[in-house]
Each structure stands twice: as C-alpha cells, then as structure tokens.
Amino acid sequence: MKVVIISASPRKNGNTHLAMNYVFEYVKSKNVDVNLLNLSEEKIECYRGPEEEYNDITKNAANDVMDADVWLIGSPIYNSFFSSALKNLFEYVNYKKTEGKVAGIVIMAAGNIGFVDVQTMITQLLSYYRVITNPKAVFLTVDSVSENSLTDESAKERLREMVDGTLKIAFRMKE
Length: 175
Fold this sequence. Notes:
- This protein has a single domain, classed as Rossmann fold (3-Layer(aba) Sandwich).
- Helix 4 links the parallel strand 5 and strand 6.
- The two termini are 12 Å apart.
- By secondary structure, the chain is of the alpha/beta class.
- The strands form 2 sheets. Strands 1, 2, 3, 4, 5, 6 and 7 form a 7-stranded mixed sheet that branches.
- It is 39% helix and 23% strand.
- The mean pLDDT is 93.
C-alpha cells in the first residue's frame, strides 16, 4: 500500500507542516510505502493548462498523488478556504486515475472557526476525484504548536486515530 502525505501550506515554517511531519513519522511505523509531499519545499509550477509542458518536480508530485492508495492531506485555512497550493496541485491530478483511493484530512487554523466549512470544501474536491474520505477529520489550532513542534498530546492522539482509521478503510477497500 502506498501513502502520500500532502502538507499543503506554502509557508516554509508553517504549522501545518509540523502536524503533517508528525503524521509522516507515525505512518512510517505502519509497514506501508510512504512519501511526504511538502508544498512549501516542492517547486510545483502554477497550472497553465493541459497543453503546457511542466518541470519534472511538478510531474513527479502529480504522479505521487495518482500512484498512492491513500492520501493524508493537511491544509491551513486561508481566507475561509483551503490552501491554494493544494488546489494548484490537484489541477495536475487526472480524476480517471484516482477512483477508489482513500483520504484523511487535517485542517490547521489560527482559531476555532471555519473548520467544517473547509472540511466540506476539501471533501467536495475529493469527491470529484472519486476518493473515499474518512469522515473523521482532525481540526487543529496554532495552540497545539509551540517551540516549532507539535506539543499537544490530544492533537497527536487525534492524528494517530485519523491515520489508523484511514488506513483501515483503505485496507478494507483492497479486500
């Protein structure tokens, strides 16, 4: 089973990346093939249309997403919406190659507002790609982060539960 973890914050030292790095380290213990796609570090080009030529990093990122069985997506909330870096990445993904994949969602925000709206938008995006989404998303605030690491034990537990639940759905889909 292949898992791709998408850290969708375009900020180099974003709090979303801290959470998704924690998820990455946890998934590595699960005996699956796992890849971390950090959109703040990858040089993914802005989508300009299907007939354009794109760099290898962009093509490889899209292929990593399409080849994975499980997507664990972390996005910050910006202006009541998910990250534009995430939307840009999905412009390259061919919906004909994604049916039946399974996704889990992590949403990071400054405060306790807008989580359900953004969860709904990400779920709708994933529905277009015919991806089965774990309904148990993890909502985190910046209060779960201090000294450049995820420090809230409750947040860590919820992340582990989301990963375990999403992998369980994916394994059942393969049966």
